[in-house]
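User: Sequence in, structure out. Go.
Assistant: Echoing your sequence, followed by the structure tokens.
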Amino acid sequence: MFGKIIFISESVAHIENTLKNNETMDLMNIHVIFEAPNQRILGEISEINPEVIKIRFLGEYINGKYVNGVIRKPLLSSKIRIINEPELKELIGSKSQKSFELGHSAIYKNYTVYPQINSFFSNHFFICGNSGAGKTHGISRIIQNVFSDPTISNENANLFLFDAYGEYKNALKGISTYNPNYQYKFITSNIQDADDVPLEIPVSLLKLDDMALLLQASSHSQLPIIERTIRLAKIFSQNSEESERYKNHLIAKALLAILFSNQTTAHKKNEIFTIIEVCHTEDFNFDSRIAGLGYSRSFSECFEIDSNGNFGESVLITDYILKHVDDELEETKEPTIYSYSMLDFSKALEFTLISEGFQNNSKVYDDAIMIKVRLASILNTKVGTYFVNKGYVTPEDFVKNLIMKNGKKAQIININLEDVDDVYAKVIVKIICRLLFEYTKSLKNRASMPIHMILEEAHRYIQKDNDTFLLGYNIFDRIAKEGRKYGAILGIISQRPVEISDTVIAQVSNFLIFKMTHPKDLKYIEEMLPNISSDVIEKQKTLQPGNCVAFGGAFKIPMIVHMDMPDPPPYSSNCDVSSCWTNPINPSAGTQNPVQEPNIPPANAAPPQTSLN
């Protein structure tokens, strides 16, 4: 089979092919050993022709352990043989309490690939491939394998699966059958079943950066508006005498600015009434009674214009307004315990826009109009229902509540975003991931509670957007760079790696690449990953559905892995058009069956399934 070594180039050995013409053997991609005294070098057969077999060097076995890379080339006198079972198991791993089943070797039949749990799950991982190549089935199978192993109890796992299309529920909802202590929690924007949990995020947990993203801020000048609005919303949430006096102070300052301006009386009246219409209190509203000497007037009556073109009660109303000015209130501290709704935030925004420095500023006005329009859109659509006010909640309380279900800890938290528009879905995912990341950073014992954030259709969220320009950072870039040491791990699943942030891809350690054919994606992966060989790129082009090229820190060498079908499968298969279209023929009548009412499935029915995705 293997004759003598003809010559050795930089990374390939050219071996004499001693197979006879009538002998057949499938040797492509088989691994061989170049054996000499104190040397065992691993190679992979990359090309076979009638005279020469080309073998590419991969690494070396040292004291029984495989080490990537070759420093010394094999001797010309080396004995060449096919890899034996112990050497193969060193590459593909073996079953233990610290490993999990990934799939089966596509090259070596009846051998299973067992990566170490720590090597795979303690680092960011990336799963990519064409639509229909097997990504969704692949991650479903991985999770099923991890939790179905009866020899291991993974009760402390925290897998947050951001589900773009509600595909994973069918595959993962039954994990309690593996272990009664396992719980699956389905958080969704579209409640269908009794144990579904509504998607809800407390508004008071949103920081300046979150609000800026939610309101689609596009310039730095909008940030002070949002920042002051958050401050006022916190103060006003107290419903205290001090917060009421602060509101009166803000209104009074705005009214005085108008009264002492050089505008016409009629214009002043219009502006004052516009303010009172959106910012009012018990002391400042159209019906507030203002007492004079022996008489009183309503607030609106004080602004009636007399025959001289002035306000008839200008002295009375000016004195009344001045009584409510208290500049010391500007030093009011934000409360430490607070909660408010999105509507409360909207009201606070109105007070921000009448505040000193913001009022009558044309640039601020233009910026504020965009914020107000987007805020109104949120309040008047279903998006507003995802942001709630249910009392004071700390970030720690929010995260702990996410992982609890009926008093028990959930290991898989499936967050379904299929009904959320991409613009808002991206923001919601960023907010939740920020809260999870900051929670892991706050733990006294670093990395004591690993949290995995698995993002299906990640190109919807981890984009090359303008977050860094606007806020100075992108949360996914930050998690990718810092999360690993705190136990905040990203799992990225996408069919368009070219659209994913370069910074995130650069921090990924493990890859499962299903079939991809788009030239831009192939070129991007090859350029972004300096350790990937052209051989890996070529291998994945011809993969069958359900097969992937696995490489990275969890794998001794790049290998083709065949993954079993998940049982049960996710809802990710193609529509069975043929079954949906077909109206069977009645053989006895020789004609089609009589026309019947169409069989319309209910909205939450599972679609017919045909192939992998």
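User: And one key feature?
Assistant: The radius of gyration is 33 Å.
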